[in-house]
Amino acid sequence: MKDRSIFLSFCCLIVLIFSVCVFISEKNTDFQTLETNSSNELSNKKINWGIKREKDHIQPDLGKVNLSLINECEGYAIGNKEKPYIYLTFDEGYEAGYTSKILDVLKENNVKGAFFITAHYLNTNEDLVKRMIEEGHIVGNHTVNHKSMPDISDEQIKEEVMKLHISIYEKFGYEMKYLRPPKGEYSQRTLNTCNNLGYKTVMWSFAYKDWEENNQSGEENAKKMIINNLHNGEIMLLHGNSKDNCNVLDFIIKETKNKGYEFKSLDEFEL
To answer: Which are the catalytic amino acids?
Structure first.
């Protein structure tokens, strides 16, 4: 009888252990399913970033829904409307021969900017990237191949972002943390993916048609467009391949300061 009692107790223990294991397994499976479904539920609707300009140096309308998506992932698009701060950024897909002078002007005026570069730019202009870092500017991630993020998978986004991240780190020991989506195109899914990679997405509250190297609008138009649209908390986007931008940058910086604005680094960004 004693042996039978021991045997029955042992069997009950085995059943109990098996039941607990099954329960834990089912809970883990439920959690994994929940995580997968949550990821799949994020919208991949492609959004083209745009702004509606206002007069009299009033902050532009960035679109309530679009801005809320940026804010959800703790990205930057426009700063505090009460603070006369300007955040100067440049997109650098390729070098057209102007960035060296741009860096000279920034140094002369004691202004720090952010340069969003591609892998092509790094591979063909390593000395300029090195100079950006050494002179205290931010080097941001504009991805390896400048592909529209909503058109590619999460894994491809990771590759586009992290390959450039690793290259910069290996060459200069510099760790990038700001990202600008190629072509200004993004979705809720892509913002979430980049955020999970440790990146802060940076959009803009001012830009103008300056990116066509062989179709510049003229220096006077560039001055007018930039100065007339200055506003508190502005993230200013200029393209580094623009001859007009290069030639008017010194004027723009001095005139902006004369109007009471202060240039700040993205590291000092205030909402």
So the answer is: 91, 239
